[in-house]
Amino acid sequence: MASPPVRPWGELQHDLLVAIMSRVGTPDLLSGGAPRACSAWWAAARDPFAWRRVDLRDWTALTSARRAAGTRATSTSVSVQDALAGVLEVAATRADGRMEAVLLPEFADEDHILFLAERSPNLQYFSFPTTCMTYDQFCKAIGKLQSLKGMAVDESLINYDALHHVHQCCPDFLELKVFALYVDEYMASIICDSLPRLKKLEIPNADMSCAAIIKFLDCLEELEYMDISGYETSAISSTVLHKASRLKVFIWNSKFELGEFKDCSNCGEHSINPLEPCNCIMDHKVMDWLAGPSQAS
After folding, report:
1. Residue 90 falls within a domain, yes or no?
2. Cβ(195)–Cβ(216) under 8 Å?
3. Is 98:50 a contact under the CB 8 Å cutoff?
4. Domain containing 61: what range?
Protein backbone atom coordinates (compact mmCIF):
# COMPACT_ATOMS: atom_id res chain seq x y z
CA MET A 1 0.00 0.00 0.00
CA ALA A 2 1.36 3.38 -0.95
CA SER A 3 2.12 5.80 1.87
CA PRO A 4 -0.07 8.89 2.03
CA PRO A 5 1.59 12.01 0.70
CA VAL A 6 3.49 14.01 3.31
CA ARG A 7 2.91 17.75 3.32
CA PRO A 8 5.57 20.06 4.74
CA TRP A 9 4.84 21.99 7.94
CA GLY A 10 5.37 25.23 6.10
CA GLU A 11 2.22 24.62 4.04
CA LEU A 12 -0.09 24.83 7.05
CA GLN A 13 -2.56 27.70 6.91
CA HIS A 14 -1.23 30.89 8.45
CA ASP A 15 -4.01 31.08 11.05
CA LEU A 16 -3.19 27.57 12.24
CA LEU A 17 0.52 28.37 12.43
CA VAL A 18 -0.27 31.47 14.48
CA ALA A 19 -2.44 29.40 16.85
CA ILE A 20 0.49 26.99 17.31
CA MET A 21 3.01 29.77 17.84
CA SER A 22 0.80 31.45 20.45
CA ARG A 23 1.02 28.28 22.58
CA VAL A 24 4.73 27.44 22.35
CA GLY A 25 5.88 29.98 24.93
CA THR A 26 7.80 33.21 24.54
CA PRO A 27 11.32 31.67 24.38
CA ASP A 28 10.32 29.39 21.50
CA LEU A 29 8.33 32.20 19.96
CA LEU A 30 11.43 34.37 19.89
CA SER A 31 13.67 31.67 18.44
CA GLY A 32 10.89 30.51 16.10
CA GLY A 33 11.20 33.84 14.37
CA ALA A 34 14.93 33.50 13.87
CA PRO A 35 16.34 33.72 10.32
CA ARG A 36 16.86 29.95 10.19
CA ALA A 37 13.09 29.31 10.32
CA CYS A 38 11.12 28.84 7.12
CA SER A 39 9.24 31.87 5.85
CA ALA A 40 5.84 30.53 6.96
CA TRP A 41 6.92 29.99 10.58
CA TRP A 42 8.88 33.25 10.52
CA ALA A 43 5.73 35.12 9.51
CA ALA A 44 3.59 33.32 12.12
CA ALA A 45 6.09 34.21 14.87
CA ARG A 46 5.65 37.86 13.97
CA ASP A 47 1.89 37.87 13.71
CA PRO A 48 0.42 40.16 16.43
CA PHE A 49 -2.07 37.48 17.52
CA ALA A 50 0.80 35.16 18.48
CA TRP A 51 1.91 37.75 21.05
CA ARG A 52 -1.33 38.16 22.96
CA ARG A 53 0.13 36.36 26.01
CA VAL A 54 3.81 36.93 26.84
CA ASP A 55 5.41 34.89 29.62
CA LEU A 56 8.84 36.27 30.57
CA ARG A 57 9.28 34.47 33.90
CA ASP A 58 11.81 31.90 32.64
CA TRP A 59 14.62 34.36 31.98
CA THR A 60 17.27 31.68 31.39
CA ALA A 61 15.28 30.21 28.52
CA LEU A 62 14.56 33.69 27.18
CA THR A 63 18.20 34.73 27.08
CA SER A 64 19.07 31.51 25.25
CA ALA A 65 16.34 32.21 22.72
CA ARG A 66 17.54 35.77 22.24
CA ARG A 67 21.06 34.51 21.66
CA ALA A 68 19.75 31.99 19.14
CA ALA A 69 17.89 34.76 17.38
CA GLY A 70 21.14 36.65 16.98
CA THR A 71 20.20 39.74 19.02
CA ARG A 72 22.50 41.72 21.28
CA ALA A 73 20.13 41.83 24.25
CA THR A 74 21.98 38.98 25.97
CA SER A 75 25.42 40.55 25.73
CA THR A 76 27.36 40.36 28.99
CA SER A 77 27.71 44.15 28.94
CA VAL A 78 23.93 44.61 29.08
CA SER A 79 22.13 44.50 32.45
CA VAL A 80 19.19 42.17 32.93
CA GLN A 81 16.92 45.20 33.28
CA ASP A 82 18.06 46.52 29.90
CA ALA A 83 17.78 43.06 28.38
CA LEU A 84 14.22 42.75 29.68
CA ALA A 85 13.43 46.18 28.25
CA GLY A 86 14.71 44.93 24.89
CA VAL A 87 12.49 41.85 25.01
CA LEU A 88 9.47 43.97 25.98
CA GLU A 89 10.20 46.27 23.05
CA VAL A 90 10.18 43.28 20.70
CA ALA A 91 6.99 41.91 22.24
CA ALA A 92 5.16 45.24 22.16
CA THR A 93 6.22 45.87 18.56
CA ARG A 94 5.12 42.47 17.35
CA ALA A 95 1.89 42.52 19.38
CA ASP A 96 0.95 45.86 17.80
CA GLY A 97 -1.44 46.76 20.61
CA ARG A 98 -2.98 43.28 20.88
CA MET A 99 -1.07 42.09 23.94
CA GLU A 100 -3.56 40.84 26.54
CA ALA A 101 -1.35 39.39 29.28
CA VAL A 102 2.29 39.64 30.31
CA LEU A 103 4.04 37.79 33.13
CA LEU A 104 7.21 39.59 34.23
CA PRO A 105 10.26 38.03 35.96
CA GLU A 106 11.12 38.78 39.57
CA PHE A 107 13.78 41.37 38.73
CA ALA A 108 11.40 43.57 36.74
CA ASP A 109 11.04 47.14 38.00
CA GLU A 110 8.61 50.03 37.65
CA ASP A 111 10.12 51.18 34.36
CA HIS A 112 9.05 47.91 32.75
CA ILE A 113 5.44 48.13 33.92
CA LEU A 114 5.27 51.80 32.89
CA PHE A 115 6.58 50.84 29.45
CA LEU A 116 3.82 48.24 29.13
CA ALA A 117 1.20 50.77 30.16
CA GLU A 118 2.43 53.15 27.47
CA ARG A 119 2.80 50.62 24.68
CA SER A 120 0.02 48.14 25.54
CA PRO A 121 -2.92 50.16 26.92
CA ASN A 122 -5.31 47.28 26.11
CA LEU A 123 -3.48 44.94 28.50
CA GLN A 124 -5.92 42.80 30.48
CA TYR A 125 -3.57 41.04 32.92
CA PHE A 126 -0.04 41.45 34.25
CA SER A 127 2.08 39.63 36.80
CA PHE A 128 4.56 41.86 38.64
CA PRO A 129 6.05 39.88 41.55
CA THR A 130 8.65 42.39 42.74
CA THR A 131 8.64 45.19 45.32
CA CYS A 132 10.31 47.69 42.96
CA MET A 133 7.27 49.93 42.52
CA THR A 134 6.32 53.16 44.24
CA TYR A 135 2.70 54.09 44.86
CA ASP A 136 2.81 57.09 42.50
CA GLN A 137 4.31 55.12 39.63
CA PHE A 138 1.88 52.26 40.18
CA CYS A 139 -1.08 54.63 40.00
CA LYS A 140 0.39 56.22 36.90
CA ALA A 141 0.59 52.83 35.18
CA ILE A 142 -2.87 51.73 36.32
CA GLY A 143 -4.35 54.98 35.04
CA LYS A 144 -3.33 53.96 31.51
CA LEU A 145 -4.62 50.37 31.80
CA GLN A 146 -8.37 50.88 31.84
CA SER A 147 -8.97 47.47 30.22
CA LEU A 148 -7.19 45.66 33.04
CA LYS A 149 -9.12 42.65 34.36
CA GLY A 150 -6.57 41.14 36.69
CA MET A 151 -3.08 41.36 38.15
CA ALA A 152 -0.59 39.50 40.31
CA VAL A 153 1.42 41.75 42.63
CA ASP A 154 3.59 41.72 45.73
CA GLU A 155 1.97 42.37 49.11
CA SER A 156 3.75 45.76 49.22
CA LEU A 157 1.09 47.04 46.81
CA ILE A 158 -1.79 45.74 48.91
CA ASN A 159 -3.01 48.94 50.50
CA TYR A 160 -6.38 50.61 50.30
CA ASP A 161 -5.34 53.62 48.19
CA ALA A 162 -3.56 51.54 45.55
CA LEU A 163 -6.33 48.97 45.21
CA HIS A 164 -9.07 51.59 45.32
CA HIS A 165 -7.30 53.33 42.43
CA VAL A 166 -7.46 50.02 40.53
CA HIS A 167 -11.18 49.78 41.31
CA GLN A 168 -11.79 53.31 40.01
CA CYS A 169 -9.68 53.09 36.85
CA CYS A 170 -10.44 49.52 35.78
CA PRO A 171 -14.20 48.83 35.74
CA ASP A 172 -13.73 45.22 34.58
CA PHE A 173 -11.16 44.26 37.22
CA LEU A 174 -12.16 40.88 38.68
CA GLU A 175 -8.98 38.88 39.40
CA LEU A 176 -6.21 39.35 41.98
CA LYS A 177 -3.18 37.29 42.90
CA VAL A 178 -0.97 38.31 45.81
CA PHE A 179 2.60 37.22 46.53
CA ALA A 180 2.63 37.43 50.32
CA LEU A 181 4.36 35.89 53.32
CA TYR A 182 1.57 36.56 55.80
CA VAL A 183 -2.08 37.51 55.37
CA ASP A 184 -4.10 38.61 58.39
CA GLU A 185 -7.65 39.86 58.77
CA TYR A 186 -6.53 43.47 58.28
CA MET A 187 -5.00 42.76 54.86
CA ALA A 188 -8.08 40.74 53.94
CA SER A 189 -10.26 43.73 54.89
CA ILE A 190 -8.22 46.01 52.62
CA ILE A 191 -8.75 43.70 49.67
CA CYS A 192 -12.44 43.22 50.37
CA ASP A 193 -13.18 46.91 50.92
CA SER A 194 -11.25 48.18 47.88
CA LEU A 195 -12.06 45.39 45.40
CA PRO A 196 -15.56 44.19 46.36
CA ARG A 197 -16.33 42.72 42.91
CA LEU A 198 -13.51 40.19 42.82
CA LYS A 199 -14.43 36.88 41.23
CA LYS A 200 -11.00 35.21 41.44
CA LEU A 201 -8.52 35.47 44.33
CA GLU A 202 -5.18 33.67 44.57
CA ILE A 203 -2.87 33.93 47.59
CA PRO A 204 -0.76 30.75 47.50
CA ASN A 205 2.10 29.80 49.82
CA ALA A 206 1.23 32.36 52.51
CA ASP A 207 0.89 32.15 56.26
CA MET A 208 -2.82 32.96 56.51
CA SER A 209 -5.11 33.23 59.52
CA CYS A 210 -8.48 31.55 59.67
CA ALA A 211 -10.05 34.97 60.30
CA ALA A 212 -8.59 36.25 57.03
CA ILE A 213 -10.02 33.34 55.06
CA ILE A 214 -13.46 33.83 56.61
CA LYS A 215 -13.26 37.57 55.88
CA PHE A 216 -12.74 36.84 52.18
CA LEU A 217 -15.59 34.34 52.09
CA ASP A 218 -18.01 36.61 53.96
CA CYS A 219 -17.28 39.90 52.21
CA LEU A 220 -16.47 39.01 48.61
CA GLU A 221 -20.01 38.12 47.59
CA GLU A 222 -19.20 37.63 43.89
CA LEU A 223 -16.14 35.44 44.54
CA GLU A 224 -16.15 32.23 42.48
CA TYR A 225 -12.53 31.02 42.60
CA MET A 226 -10.20 31.00 45.60
CA ASP A 227 -6.72 29.48 45.76
CA ILE A 228 -4.93 29.53 49.11
CA SER A 229 -2.94 26.37 48.50
CA GLY A 230 0.37 25.87 50.26
CA TYR A 231 -0.65 27.85 53.36
CA GLU A 232 1.61 27.35 56.37
CA THR A 233 -0.89 27.35 59.23
CA SER A 234 -3.69 24.94 59.95
CA ALA A 235 -6.47 27.47 59.29
CA ILE A 236 -9.02 25.27 57.53
CA SER A 237 -11.94 24.59 59.82
CA SER A 238 -15.38 23.14 59.25
CA THR A 239 -16.69 26.73 59.24
CA VAL A 240 -14.31 27.67 56.42
CA LEU A 241 -15.29 24.63 54.38
CA HIS A 242 -18.99 25.37 54.87
CA LYS A 243 -18.64 28.99 53.77
CA ALA A 244 -16.44 28.00 50.81
CA SER A 245 -18.99 25.48 49.53
CA ARG A 246 -20.66 28.27 47.51
CA LEU A 247 -17.51 28.74 45.38
CA LYS A 248 -17.03 27.06 42.03
CA VAL A 249 -13.36 26.39 42.85
CA PHE A 250 -11.71 26.29 46.28
CA ILE A 251 -8.07 25.12 46.36
CA TRP A 252 -6.77 24.83 49.89
CA ASN A 253 -4.34 21.91 50.13
CA SER A 254 -1.65 22.85 52.64
CA LYS A 255 1.98 22.07 53.25
CA PHE A 256 0.73 20.12 56.25
CA GLU A 257 -1.41 17.95 54.01
CA LEU A 258 1.42 17.43 51.52
CA GLY A 259 3.80 16.08 54.18
CA GLU A 260 6.08 19.13 54.12
CA PHE A 261 5.46 20.04 57.78
CA LYS A 262 7.85 19.59 60.67
CA ASP A 263 5.37 18.81 63.40
CA CYS A 264 1.67 18.07 63.90
CA SER A 265 -0.42 20.83 65.43
CA ASN A 266 -2.77 18.25 66.98
CA CYS A 267 -0.67 15.51 68.53
CA GLY A 268 2.66 17.34 68.75
CA GLU A 269 4.67 14.66 66.95
CA HIS A 270 7.89 16.02 65.44
CA SER A 271 9.92 15.23 62.29
CA ILE A 272 7.06 13.39 60.64
CA ASN A 273 8.01 11.17 57.75
CA PRO A 274 5.33 11.31 54.99
CA LEU A 275 5.84 7.57 54.51
CA GLU A 276 5.09 6.99 58.19
CA PRO A 277 2.31 9.47 59.07
CA CYS A 278 1.27 10.29 62.59
CA ASN A 279 -1.73 8.77 64.35
CA CYS A 280 -4.00 11.66 63.28
CA ILE A 281 -3.71 10.68 59.65
CA MET A 282 -3.66 6.99 60.33
CA ASP A 283 -7.00 7.38 62.13
CA HIS A 284 -8.46 9.32 59.18
CA LYS A 285 -8.87 12.49 61.25
CA VAL A 286 -7.33 14.75 58.64
CA MET A 287 -9.98 17.47 58.87
CA ASP A 288 -9.88 17.61 62.68
CA TRP A 289 -6.09 17.73 62.54
CA LEU A 290 -6.04 20.58 60.03
CA ALA A 291 -8.60 22.53 62.04
CA GLY A 292 -6.60 22.16 65.25
CA PRO A 293 -7.73 20.79 68.62
CA SER A 294 -9.83 23.87 69.52
CA GLN A 295 -11.88 23.63 66.31
CA ALA A 296 -12.21 19.90 65.98
CA SER A 297 -15.75 18.63 65.71
Report:
1. yes
2. no
3. no
4. 11-98
Establish if 277 belongs to a structural domain.
no
Length of the chain: 297
Give the DSSP letter string of 104-132.
--TT--HHHHHHHHHH-TT--EEEE-SS-
Neighbour-count burial for 182-219, b at 16+ CB within 10 Å, e otherwise: ebebebbbbbbebbeebbbbbbeebebbbebbbbbbee
Strands (E), the chain: 53-55, 101-103, 125-128, 150-154, 175-179, 182-183, 200-202, 207-208, 225-227, 249-251
Domain presence at residue 158? no
Asked whether residue 243 is domain-assigned, the answer is no
pLDDT in tens, the chain (297 residues): 566 666 665 666 777 777 877 777 777 777 655 555 677 777 887 888 888 999 998 887 666 665 655 554 444 557 888 989 988 998 899 899 899 999 999 999 999 999 999 999 999 999 999 888 899 999 999 999 999 999 999 999 999 999 999 999 999 999 999 999 999 999 999 999 999 999 999 999 888 888 999 999 999 999 999 999 876 655 678 888 899 999 999 988 765 544 444 444 445 444 344 445 555 444 444 444 445 554 444
Q: What is the domain count for the chain?
A: 1
- Look at residue 230 and give its three-state secondary structure: coil
